[in-house]
Amino acid sequence: MKESDLKRITESNRAAWNEVMPLHQRAASVKLDRLFSQPGHVHLDATEVDLLERIELTGKNVAHLCCNNGSELLSLKNLGAAECVGFDICDLAIQEARQRAAANRIDCQFVRTDVYEIDPIYEQRFDLVYISAGCLGWLPDLQQFFARAAVLLKLGGRVFIHEIHPFSEMLPFDEEQPTEKLGITSPYFKKEPYLEQGGLDYIGHAEYASTTTQYQFVHTLSDILMGLINNNLQIEQFHEYEQDISAGHRRIEEAKAGIPLSYILIGRKA
Q1: Distance of CA 27 to CAs 31, 56, 153, 198, 202, Å?
Q2: Distance between CA atoms of residues 212 and 194, nearest Å
Q3: How do the domains of the chain map onto residue ranges?
Q4: Other CB atoms within 10 Å distance of the CB of residue 136
């Protein structure tokens, strides 16, 4: 993708996230502040923590790409990680993350940046690049993204992805499913992004007026796997789960329909 197109899209998404963050904060900030005031609080699910411990997170330097409000990175620090740096394009999310880290004396650094433009001072500095739910769908170019992830890693370092399963992108969201009957409503293969305005408050579910265009991309499993492979990130583990981490497919999870809604992928820099 041309650099000018990439920048236009990421800056538009930046504006969209800055617009919705006050609503997210109104719905969740007080709860997160209370939780992280408890020493050692971990805001991750047990399956994820188990896999992180198996690859020996303790003492490792961690970069979290698209870190949002920092709750996952603060959790990784509380699990024993060493240097922890989070990167996100949203100004207000980074501000919130810095404030929570400082208030609770959790030693994490948060950097406001487009993940395609991370400063070269961070190259080959990390043992683990962590990517969490809702990151990849905002990225126009996965090849360039995974190239950036790879250059942040030391040789032998790992990338850890806990993401929404691409298959679930074909299914209706909870509010779009009027009956118990489940059907496919969107294509799996879609080259062009979805262009939307508003509707990003999946935490408080508040409605708000917006004129900011969001660009959301549907990346297939092959897009993700080849993005890693083409950047010398060798796949070590891949696990699929029926657990919804999108906050939009809880009805499907509760129906126990046997549909993959999330996955964890671990790769190593060769």
Answers
A1: 8, 34, 35, 17, 10
A2: 13
A3: 3-269
A4: 23
Q: Per the confidence metrics, is the pTM higher than 0.85?
A: yes
Q: Where are the alpha helices (DSSP H) in 104-155?
A: 142-152
∠ CA 188-147-122, nearest 5°, is: 135
Mean pLDDT, range 197-209, rounded to an integer: 82
Q: Residue 65: which of 119, 3, 118 has the closest Cα?
A: 118
Span 97-115, average pLDDT:
98
How many of the other CB atoms lie within 10 Å of CB of 14? Answer: 18
Single-letter residue type at 228:
L
Q: To which residue do tokens 């370092």 refer?
A: 157
Structure tokens given for 262: 């999330």
Q: Residue 133 in contact with residue 243, Cβ under 8 Å?
A: no
| Highest mean pLDDT pick, 2-6, 108-112, 183-187 | 108-112
Helices (H) and strands (E) in the chain, counts: 7, 9
Assign 3-state DSSP to the chain and report helix, strand, coil percentages, each to 5.
40, 20, 40
d(CA 221, CA 233): 15
Residues counted in the chain: 270
Six-digit token string for 191: 């080259």
Q: What is residue 203's predicted lDDT score, i.e. its pLDDT?
A: 86
Question: How is domain 3-269 classified at the architecture level of CATH?
Answer: 3-Layer(aba) Sandwich (3.40)
